[in-house]
Each structure stands twice: as structure tokens, then as C-alpha cells.
């Protein structure tokens, strides 16, 4: 049986859901021959984006839905994360100052920095009342 | 969940987490269990990551906080057994500049 070329997952605004999304992503990628390095990057970036939406978008303890779509068009994997929290472009946030000792760095910011570093393409749109963050990782790059 | 085992080797406590360390319940378990050990006087620590496949920025933040607390108490936290991916992550975030990282827990223990 041929694995479907895309899949969707709806999550609640709950940090417990991040592990469920990770298991779902791993299952999808295992059916598409995604190599280990790319899979790690994708897992980490989805984790970071979801944590950002739950903690800083909706807020922990609040209600809200998050829709994740994964697709494997050709030699890359594309993830899209959509939420209906207040408009917020995480890509506008300045990168953390890595010259500061880790324990003295402000909380937050490191996750989106990792997304920018590890993905090949990252983009943000606000459309139809939704934040939409898309990211792509080439499967050719190690 | 993340299960944490610990073993005392002379003055050094070797902590071995098993499982992913990510935002949510597992990072809290990881941080709180090691803080509990520190509260019981374990301040020379080695964290053996050989049973950890995945850690995110929240877990990295926990590591930084644990190290700072240990240093403040006159101790240290050294890392061992990290996969290439975890090592790469520490390099990318420049945490490799503050942590002493060893291939194995035995080498980390011997360095104290």
C-alpha cells in the first residue's frame, strides 16, 4: 500500500499534545523514507512551534485548536501549523544572544531560533483569522 | 514519561534519564527529579544521555538551570553519552562552551 502524500492532525491547546504530534509525525515519516537527520530536525521544529503556540499563542490552560499538516512533495517534507490565537509572527522575534551564558538568557526565543537554523524555508501568514507557520526541510541535506 | 535512574560513584552522582525530554510533563519530571537529588546534597553530577534520543529547547533550558544551581552550590553538572544530534544541538546553541561533555559516563566521573 502506498503511504498517503499528506496527513492532518488536530490538537488541543495542551502541552501533553506535543508528544502525540511527535508520534504522529514519526509514523508519517517512516512511511516516506525520511532519513534520520531530517526526521530529527522535523521533530524538533514541530515540537518548538507547537510549544510556542500553546505557551505564547493561546496560553497554557486556555482552549484552542491547532491543525498540523505534513506533506512530502518530492525530496522535501513540508509542515504547516495553523492556530486561531491572536495574530503573532514568531519569525519577527529577535534571535537570542548566544554570547550570554545559557542560564542568563531570557526564557523563550531559542525554539524559533532552532527552527530558523534547521529548516530550509520558514514562512508566516495570517489569513482567515489563522496564524499559519510553514516550514520545509530538504531530504537531500544531511 | 522520562524515567531517571541514579547511581552514586564515590562523590559523583551519575544520573541516567531514559526517554525523550521535551516541553510538558517530561521536562518537569527531568528537572524536578534532579533538583530533588541536589536538595539531598548531590552536587557533583554527571548526566548520562546515552538513553535519551530527543531533547528540545525546554530541556536545554532545564539543563542550563540545573548546571547554574549546581555551580552555585559549589558543584557542577557534566554531560556524557550524547548522540551526534544532541551534541550538534549543544553546539548550535553554544551550550557546549559552558558544559564539559564526555563520550562516556566513566570518563565524566573520572574528570571530577
Task: Explain what you see.
With 142 residues, chain A is α+β, with helices and mostly antiparallel strands. Chain A has one domain (6-138): Heat Shock Protein 90, CATH 3.30.565.10. Chain A has helices at residues 16-30, 36-58, 110-118, and strands at 6-12, 65-71, 76-83, 121-127, 130-138. A 5-stranded antiparallel beta sheet of chain A has the order 1-2-3-5-4, covered by helices on one side. In chain A, α1 runs antiparallel to α2 and α2 packs antiparallel against α3 (110-118). With 112 residues, chain B is of the alpha/beta class. Chain B has one domain (3-110): Transcription Regulator spoIIAA (2-Layer Sandwich). In chain B, strands 1-2-3-4-5 form a 5-stranded mixed beta sheet. In chain B, β1 (3-9) and β2 (12-18) form a beta hairpin. In chain B, α1 (25-39) runs parallel beside α2. The N and C termini of chain B lie far apart (30 Å). In chain B, 45% of the residues are buried. The model of chain B has no long low-confidence stretch (mean pLDDT 95). Chain A binds chain B through residues 15-16, 18-19, 22, 37, 40, 43-44, 47-48, 51, 55, 98-99, 101-103, 105, 107, 110-111, 113-114, 117, and chain B through 20, 22-26, 54, 56-58, 60-61, 63-65, 67-68, 85, 89, 92-95, 98.
Amino acid at each position: 500500500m502506498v503511504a498517503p502524500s499528506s496527513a492532518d492532525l488536530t490538537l488541543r491547546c495542551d502541552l501533553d499534545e506535543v508528544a502525540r504530534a511527535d508520534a504522529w509525525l514519526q509514523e508519517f515519516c517512516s512511511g516516506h523514507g525520511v532519513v534520520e537527520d531530517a526526521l530529527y530536525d522535523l521533530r524538533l521544529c514541530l515540537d518548538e512551534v507547537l510549544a510556542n503556540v500553546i505557551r505564547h499563542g493561546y496560553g497554557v490552560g486556555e482552549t484552542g485548536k491547532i491543525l498540523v499538516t505534513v506533506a512530502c512533495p518530492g525530496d522535501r517534507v513540508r509542515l504547516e501549523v495553523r492556530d486561531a490565537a491572536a495574530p503573532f509572527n514568531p519569525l519577527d522575534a529577535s534571535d537570542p544572544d548566544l554570547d550570554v551564558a545559557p542560564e542568563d538568557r531570557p526564557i523563550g526565543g531559542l525554539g524559533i531560533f532552532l527552527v530558523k537554523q534547521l529548516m530550509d524555508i520558514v514562512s508566516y501568514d495570517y489569513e482567515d483569522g489563522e496564524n499559519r507557520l510553514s516550514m520545509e526541510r530538504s531530504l537531500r541535506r544531511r | 514519561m522520562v524515567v531517571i535512574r541514579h547511581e552514586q560513584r564515590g562523590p559523583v552522582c551519575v544520573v541516567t534519564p531514559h526517554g525523550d525530554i521535551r516541553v510538558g510533563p517530561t521536562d518537569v519530571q527531568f528537572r524536578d527529579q534532579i533538583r530533588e537529588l541536589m536538595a539531598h546534597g548531590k552536587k557533583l553530577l554527571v548526566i548520562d544521555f546515552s538513553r535519551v534520543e530527543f531533547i528540545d529547547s525546554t530541556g536545554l533550558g532545564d539543563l542550563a538551570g540545573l548546571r547554574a544551581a549546581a555551580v552555585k552550590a559549589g558543584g557542577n553538572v557534566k554531560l556524557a553519552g550524547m548522540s551526534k544530534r544532541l551534541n550538534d544541538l549543544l553546539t548550535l546553541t553554544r551550550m557546549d562552551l559552558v558544559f564539559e561533555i564526555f563520550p562516556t559516563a566513566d570518563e565524566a566521573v573520572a574528570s571530577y
